[in-house]
Amino acid sequence: MPSWFILMLSKRIIPCLDVAHGRVVKGVQFVDIIDAGDPVEAAIKYDQQGADELCFLDIRASHESRDTLYHMVTEVAEHVFMPLTVGGGVKALSDIENLLHAGADKVSINTAAIFTPELVKEAAERFGSSTIVVAVDAKSVGDHWECFTHGGRKPTGINAVEWAKRMSDYGAGEILLTSMDADGTKNGYDIPLTRAVSDAISANVVASGGVGTLEHMAEGLKAGGADAVLAASIFHFGTFTIAETKAYLAKQGIPVRN
Amino acid sequence: MIGLINYGMGNLHSVAKALEKAGGEVELVTEAESLKNYDRIVLPGVGAFRDCIAALKESGLDVAIKDEIATGKPFLGICLGMQVLMDYSLEFGRHKGLGLIPGAVTHFPEDHAARGYKIPHMGWNDVIFSSEKPQHPVLAPLAGQQVYYVHSYCCMPENPDHLLAACSYGDYPFAAAVGRDNIVAVQFHPEKSQSAGLAMMEAFLQWNP
């Protein structure tokens, strides 16, 4: 193997789709949620634009809507051949198993990890680290960040950086890190938070919350040290396409896939 | 007809759909005795090496796979389905593999994450071919393309002839693809690599070693 053999793993650009009852919805900070259409069509659109991965979050996760979600994941997985992360209301190993069987590649665990941290360890052992994502919703409190649940309304008293480290140590392959302060502001990712988590853990970090411009994406990947950036509204509302995003990032010297 | 081996682990759905999209007809195979009924065999895999080998042994599929490979049928291993072809893996202790490709499965270096290379190696990376030998026909569509990898352990064959393509994560090289005769096996996920992956699947369906 030649010594010059050093390749660059591409940074990933991930559109995030909120879904409810098997339909894509969009809204601003959970207000004015409107039906934005068919998840398969949305997935195909992002696939054609060159998205590296897709993330579906069930924002109305309820027991009754689970079968609808599984069906939706299966439909999407039949039409696009790219990695799919699915989250929302995951509470037990059986939920993870059902989502993986439906066609998800990764399953995101949020609130359940806070209440039952061992679930993450068991899930990573059973399904592999590569399939387990822990969503961390963090908010600045004094001189540190704290984990919040229920869309940023309920504090947990848990230090977010330490929590991300624990989840990584438990075998989560990826942390989906959302700044509840930045989310919805379009003022950019919380860079100090993203950097603090990225430096503290061995798992991959996906930066989320607050992106409004392409510069924000570059900041999240460079200054924030994230391995991937997730965005919802700038892609949904057509502010930028994935291709435009990648062209910009490439110009900034960030490795992206063409 | 393609026999897609189902040993109760991993997501077969995506691999089956990708093979169908590439023009193949696919059936899931759980019984060792029925493996002989297929003219191409695909071994997918997600999860831990130890569990995979245990599941293959329990069903007798370990022996059936070796028997069918010996008949010369085209065989494709994907991710863990590549790793189990090797002699042994160090994942959760030392575990013996099928021994079809001499070499080991090892973890990325311990200090990799601390040096900024997060584990698992997750995302889109290259497939590099040696300039000194012809590209394998199944892998040729991947030249200049990136494919989707997700793994914490990786293979390095002992015999350089068995290394069909390489990749590196940081400065650590590993096998992107290994093979010999009628075996081709890849570390990445062609079923998750969009058009590049589907093109590879098509090439596998047309391959007559």
H/E element sequence of chain B: EHEEHHEHEEEEEEEEEH
Mean residue pLDDT of chain A: 91
Summed up, the helix count of chain A is: 10
CATH architecture of chain B: 3-Layer(aba) Sandwich
**Major β-sheet profile of chain B:** 7 strands, mixed
Termini Cα gap of chain B: 16 Å
**Would you give the CATH topology of chain B?**
Rossmann fold
Number of strands of chain B: 13
Amino-to-carboxy terminus distance of chain A: 26 Å
Strand order of the largest sheet of chain B: 2-1-3-4-13-12-11
What's the gyration radius of chain B in Å?
A: 16 Å
Task: Provide an overview of this structure.
The complex is a heterodimer of chains A (258) and B (209). Chain A contains ten helices and twelve strands. With 258 residues, chain A is an alpha/beta fold. In chain A, strands 1-4-5-6-7-10-11-12 form an eight-stranded parallel β-barrel, surrounded by eight helices. In chain A, a hairpin with a 2-residue loop joins strand 2 (23-28) and strand 3. Chain A is globular and about 45 Å long. The two termini of chain A are 26 Å apart. The mean pLDDT of chain A is 91. Chain B is of the alpha/beta class and 209 residues long. Chain B has one domain (2-206): Rossmann fold (3-Layer(aba) Sandwich). Chain B is 23% helix and 32% strand. Chain B has helices spanning 12-21, 49-59, 61-70, 80-83, 194-206; strands at 2-5, 26-29, 40-43, 75-78, 86-89, 95-96, 101-107, 121-126, 146-151, 153-157, 163-169, 172-180, 183-186. Chain B has a seven-stranded mixed beta sheet with strand order 2-1-3-4-13-12-11. In chain B, strands 6-5-7-10 form a four-stranded mixed beta sheet, with helices on one face. In chain B, strands 8-9 form a two-stranded antiparallel ribbon. In chain B, helix 1 (12-21) links the parallel strand 1 and strand 2. The longest helix of chain B is centred in the C-terminal third of the chain and has 13 residues, at 194-206. Chain B starts with a strand and ends with a helix. At the A-B interface, helix 2, helix 3 and helix 5 of A face helix 1, strand 8, strand 9, strand 11 and helix 5 of B.
